[in-house]
Amino acid sequence: MEWRRNVWFQTNQKSLERRKEPGSLKEVTKETKQKSSPTNPFSFLEFSTVASQQPAFIAPSPDHSPPPQLPESLFPAAFFFSETSHKMEESIPFIIDLEKISEEKECKKLREACERWGCFRIINHSIPLTLMAEMKSVIGALLELPMEIKKRNTEVIAGSGYMAPSKVNPFYEALGLYDLGSSQAVHNFCSQLDASPHQRQIMEAYGKAIHDLAVKIGQKMAESLGILGADFVDWPCQFRINKYNFTPEAVGSLGVQLHTDSGFLTILQDDENVGGLEVMDNNSGSFLPIPPLPGSLLGNLGDIARVWSNGRFCNVKHRVQCHEASTRFSIATFMLASRKGNVEAPAELVDHDQPRLYQPFIYEDYRKLRVSNEMHTGEALELLRIA
Ligand SMILES: O=C(O)CCC(=O)C(=O)O
After folding, report:
1. I need a surface site. Which of 129, 207, 283, 305 has the fewest CB within 10 A?
2. CA of 317 to the centre of ligand 1 (A)
3. What totals of helices (H) and strands (E) does the chain contain, helices first?
4. Closest C-alpha to ligand 1, atom 9
5. pLDDT tens by residue, 250-287
6. What mean pLDDT is predicted for residues 286-311?
7. Which residue stretches does the UniProt record annotate as biased composition, category Basic and acidic residues (predicted)?
């Protein structure tokens, strides 16, 4: 354990030094502020910055052992405060330690994160660090394949296959599959891309581990609202691997536009070196950068989480900004909605004081509603609102 702590402290020092350099996140944030103009749609937004240093790379153990159990005090990066107010009471209770999730305090923290932000970091999640690192290297190789091979990755549902760089997102491309819980779907994806036996093995192991994790976190989110026995095992998961080809010209522009995820819960392995993800604070409309926290994952709540919780949980608006000319990768697992029947809040979450907010609907219909109306930030929910 000692050597891991040493790696952490040494690299963390470097990270602190880097933060002071021109071009660091803080500097770029300032620059973005200065550059904003009446023609910039985001010019009214106020940026906040990270209060303290981010932990650095934690070397993976060679034996697929569980992630190191670092105490929360070693993860100060998860606490933010507003650059203008500097009030620590605005900090986000943001890190969820899955090893402690059966404790009341941690479960309450999960509920608060879901209600206030719709977003939280996950530590001690039990996905081996080596598997995460190997998966990153597999997706790097798959996204390097020639275009004609990547184009074989066709859609099963809208948006589930290959996405080439486009006019809207010129620096972004992605490969994907529907659905991760199906070994046949994973097999088909690997075959489309001529994956090697090793790449298949990693995809299968990662797919199973991350699917199980999404199910577990879904259950804990439900428990945090007092719903026991909610079962997410059969909820389909869309899977997407993202690459951001950030060139020097891309600096200052968006890698992915502002959006909410349409499903219930997204588990994101964001790039451990290259930041850029920002979430919107629904209270103020300002953006918070989410700096990398190596070895952790991120939980993002989508539109279905808002409906299922009868308005208690927040669907987080987020986007990816290019801050540096560097390739960024991320791996997203979207747990969508129940395969059977309607999307609706369980009866336990509906009563006289909190009447049902949304009419029950089929998830696929909701997805089409979003696409056909070009409503990418959850506005389509308003079309289904009944209270
Ligand atoms: O790359 C990221 O960090 C975010 C990706 C994302 O928002 C998405 O895939 O929906």
Report:
1. 283
2. 11
3. 9, 13
4. 332
5. 999 999 999 999 999 999 999 999 999 999 998 899 99
6. 96
7. 16-34
Closest CA to 333 of 299, 367, 304: 299
Query: How remote is the CA of residue 228 from the centroid of ligand 1, in Å?
Result: 30
Residue with tokens 């409309």: 285
From the centroid of its chain, how far is CA 353?
Answer: 32
Q: Helices 104-116 and 197-224 sit at what angle, rounded to 10 degrees? A: 100
Query: Average pLDDT in the 154-164 region?
Result: 94
Residue 94, pLDDT score: 83
> Rounded distance, CA 167 to CA 333, Å?
25
Could you tell me whether strands 119-123 and 95-97 are parallel, antiparallel, or unpaired per DSSP bridges?
parallel
For 15-75, the DSSP string reads HHHHHHSTTSHHHHHHHHHHH--TTSTTTT--B-EESSPPP-PPPPPTT-PPPP---GGG-
Report whether pLDDT(51) > 50.
no
Q: Is the pLDDT score of 134 beyond 70?
A: yes
pLDDT digits (tens, 9 = 90+) for 215-227: 999 999 999 999 9
- What number of residues does the chain have? 387
| Structural element, H or E, at residue 220 | helix 197-224
CA gap 83, 87 in Å, rounded: 9
Angle between helical axes of 183-192 and 197-224 (0-180°, round to 10) = 140
Mean pLDDT of the chain: 81
Specify the residue with its C-alpha closest to ligand 1, atom 8: 332
Cα(276) to centroid(ligand 1), Å: 10
- The minimum-distance atom of ligand 1 relative to the CA of 174 is 9
Q: Which residues line ligand 1 (CB under 6 A)?
A: 240, 242, 256, 261, 268, 270, 277, 318, 320, 330, 332
On the question of pLDDT at 80 being above 50, the answer is: no
φ/ψ of 105, rounded to 5, equals -60, -45
